[in-house]
Amino acid sequence: MASRPSYWPPPNTINPESKGLMIQGIFIGFTGFAAIVVGFRFWTRINITRSVGKDDWLILVAMINLLATTVTNCLVVKYYSLGMHIWDIVDNYGALGIKMDYSNQLLYHPILALTKVSILLLYHRISVNGSFRIWVNILIVFNIALTVSIFVADLFQCYPLAYLWDKTIPGGKCMNQQAFFVGSAVLNIISDCAVLILPVPMVWQMQTNTRKKVALIFLFSLGIFVCAVSVIRLRAVMNLADTSIKDPTFSAGFMWSGIECSVAIVCASIPSLAPFFALHFPKLLGSSLAGSRGKLYNYSGSSRRSDGYTLDSVKTDQLYPSTPDQTHVKTTVTRRENESEESIIPGAVKASAV
């Protein structure tokens, strides 16, 4: 390492204070929770809606990438000695830590893009509004173009690439990395907000009561948590250039990138769990979404139709225990624009007695 500043205390080589294990635990915990939610999402799709769509597969790819970045994040913590006081670090960072951090950078934006495109594909599938679908397609193209641009810039941030971890290479140079990281973070937040507010006008124009509209807007507005984490991460990125911070390695700001990816996958998957909760925990959702015994939720069909799901007829005893006065019902689907929340939540069915 470079010469030690005079104001640094002597290094503690016996029992140095470290938040490294805590940071690694946060990475693993958030990733594990995201994996559980994705597992429930696929269980719902396979066993309840009987329909796995493109949005689900994109989330699965994002989840696989998240598992990979969790490994590299934990290695970055180890080889960069993150969570330790900078004056207690006695070993060089080494090329391995920089390479792991470089891998994280290449995985980070694709994870978020896959998540947002997954949400947009869900919007496209559950809407029959032509103008709304046009805006969905515009945002899909924008997110893909933005991610490809950032990925290419990230990939070639230094020339030659080895100069990133070996500054002794003559003639090597890197772009303004701080400006790039801040700029890409700002563009990502703008993209997050666009995806967040896109369904609000469509839901508010639906011909249903205000309570149901608010419930649906809340369901599709969980991405606000992602936006909040993105802003916190942006602040952490800006702190990288703050020379007034005398102990940068002790900060846990690095962990917000991993948290953001996990939260994004979770928030993108929760709306797809509505059929699961409506079927097994109707009281949890309340009458706004789960309906009552006169309005049941049953799911089956094919993801081949872009405007909804094809549903098979069922009986109430397939959903609830039989009772002496129970009436058989048949399920019907109506896909009229702005009809009700059944047009928004995939697989929601309005039941009528026969």
UniProtKB/TrEMBL annotation:
Return the Polar residues bias intervals.
322-332
Q: Which Pfam families match?
A: Fung_rhodopsin (PF20684)
InterPro entries named in the record: Rhodopsin_dom_fungi, SAT4-like
Q: Which UniProt keywords apply?
A: Membrane, Transmembrane, Transmembrane helix
Q: Which domain of life is it from?
A: Eukaryota
Q: Does the keyword Transmembrane apply?
A: yes
Q: What is its main location?
A: membrane
State the family it belongs to. Answer: Belongs to the SAT4 family.
Q: What is this protein called?
A: Rhodopsin domain-containing protein
